[in-house]
């Protein structure tokens, strides 16, 4: 799962979330600290947490759950934590490879995602494949947002 910090960076760069069943999120408001070790991660599900679309915006409705007795959360108060497969899909044709690299005998492996975007090759490394994909997506989203500005 990607870090809260990376999820915020993706959101702030302009990544738009349209919730669907299976999406994970945390609540990102001053009252809740999504970076706390015990932070709740929720999953959108047609049975318990449902995206409800209204002309005024989208809310995430907690249907029959007892999680803090929440009824609903505005979409802007939720922080999407995209899964590895979702991040890989966002790269589309820019994706070239995912490489696992052993760094040393006693250290965790490192993962590198290689992409080509606008004829420029870039590599994005992290200790988790999802974070490596997320960093690559951040490069694309930031470049697209800059081009649109």
N-to-C SSE string, H for helix and E for strand? HEEEEEEHEEEH
Low-confidence stretches: none
Report on the biggest sheet: 3 strands, antiparallel
**Beta-strand residue fraction:** 25-35%
| Oligomeric state, counting identical vs distinct chains | single chain
Helix-and-strand structural type: alpha+beta
* Helix proportion range: 25-40%
Q: What count of helical segments does DSSP give?
A: 3
What's the mean pLDDT score?
87
Count the strands?
9
Query: End-to-end distance, in Å?
Result: 30 Å
Spatial strand sequence of the major β-sheet: 2-1-6
Rg (CA only) = 17 Å
Overall morphology: globular
Written account of the structure:
The chain is of the alpha+beta class and 149 residues long. Helices cover 26% and strands 31% of the residues. The protein is built from three helices and nine strands. The chain has helices at residues 4-13, 84-91, 129-148, and strands at residues 24-27, 42-43, 49-54, 57-62, 72-74, 78-80, 95-101, 110-117, 120-126. The strands form three sheets. The protein has a three-stranded antiparallel sheet. Strands 3-4-5 form a three-stranded antiparallel sheet, with no helix packed on it. Strands 7-8-9 form a three-stranded antiparallel sheet, with helices on one face. Strand 3 and strand 4 form a beta hairpin. Helix 1 runs parallel beside helix 3. The mean pLDDT is 87.
């Amino acid at each position: 799962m990607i870090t809260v910090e990376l999820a915020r960076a993706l959101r702030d760069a302009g990544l738009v979330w349209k919730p669907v069943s299976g999406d994970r999120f945390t609540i990102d408001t001053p009252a809740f600290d999504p970076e706390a070790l015990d932070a709740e991660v929720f999953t959108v599900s047609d049975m318990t947490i449902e995206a409800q679309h209204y002309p005024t915006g989208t809310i995430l409705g907690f249907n029959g759950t007892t999680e803090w007795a929440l009824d609903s959360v505005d979409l802007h108060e939720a922080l999407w934590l995209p899964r590895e497969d979702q991040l890989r899909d966002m790269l589309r044709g820019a994706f070239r490879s995912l490489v696992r690299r052993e760094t040393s005998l006693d250290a965790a492996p490192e993962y590198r995602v290689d992409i080509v975007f606008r004829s420029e090759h870039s590599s994005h490394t992290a200790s988790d494949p999802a974070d490596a994909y997320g960093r690559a997506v951040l490069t694309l989203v930031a470049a697209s947002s800059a081009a649109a500005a």
